[in-house]
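Hello,

Following up on my earlier ticket. Below are the two sequence lines again, exactly as submitted.
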Amino acid sequence: MSRLEEIINIANHIPPFPKVAMQVMKMLEDPKVLPKELAEVIQYDSAITANLLKTCNAAYFGLSRKVSSLDEALVLMGQDTLKDILIASSSARFYKGKVGDGYQLEQGDLWKHSVATAIMARSISPHFKGVEPGTAFTAGLLHDIGKRFLSSFVASDFQKIMDRTYIDGLSFLEAEHEILGMDHAELGSRILQKWEFSEEMIQAVRLHHDPLALTKDPLTALVAMANTLVISIGIGVGADGLSGAMQGDGLKRFGITGPDLERCMSNLLLEMERAEEMMSLSN
Amino acid sequence: MKVIIGISDMKIATKPDEELVTYSLGSCIGVALWDPVVKVGALLHYMLPDSSIDKDKAEQKPFMFADTGVPRMFKEIYKHGAVKERMKVYIVGGAQVMDDSGMFNIGKRNQMIIRKMFWKNNVTVTKEDVGGSVNRTITLNVGTGNVKLKISGQGEVEL
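Thanks for your patience. The regenerated structure is below:
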């Protein structure tokens, strides 16, 4: 088997995204669904249940008293919050351990970067008409899932990729593609396809480093903007650094200005302080 | 002993066995000051050039912005006996993604504002490593004044 086949195989044989999360997401499409009905499904996934209670009680979600039962948590929690926690606690299991080694990321950094991008994505979603905040959060959280699985292959050809990036001026992603035959954005989109996420989400992940991403679909533009800002701040950034281009003028059609970008950056920092509980989910 | 400075923070150290370090400077800028006589060091990690975008944030976190953070840093280090004329001054960071439209040129704006402030106040930069597209970490040894620069994926060098 060639190395490229080996990489493609990863996407084809990826463990499923937790079934309970997918099922509950589907149930939430029905506006009349009852918290009790949701609890009956969720209780079968102990990790999600525990994380729901833990995260629900964390400051970030702003509930005023401690919650101890799943039923109660679901009654108190808004649906958007429930979706965020479902997705975060289902995704966290894929980010445990030294998953970003090949990118010279420390343990926990890839998750931290992902959570920061998710929070940024959700908070900028009002600028992007038609993008639901929960969808923005999920896409932000999973945009770099490809790195998780490409990391060991990047490690084996690290110096070549670095030379193509910092000597020859390619973006790190282009160098991955040239040398490995696959880049982390494409691998990520294949994984999301396997997990049966929506077409717009798959595209947003595939194009998150495309220099013209900001001229594409609203969700694609949103994820690219969130990721670019989080990388600029330096949260969970490895050897790929700030390499590559992103044509910022695409943001004009969303009415976003330079000072808006700076405000988003300064807001994120305070929101991150409140999201500590979510950060610990991958530990 | 390592003293870590987070994003939008500044710390001063006076013990010779202390090392001030700030990680993962992207478009943010790290400013290190060291006085060789009183052997006091300071390290700032600011994120944005100009606090006028959000005055409340600047009140809460003055070290988030160059225009509020840098003057405050100098005031703090003077309290420990440091003198402007003999201080070593280092700046690193200010990287950015390529963007012809200038929307994402926060790194460059972060560099420009500190140069302007230093020019106005007669502060000379001893050494710098700014711009490009790399992610940087800077360490200042308070006892020796030694400054190390680590570029992600490329190892550590003396600045």
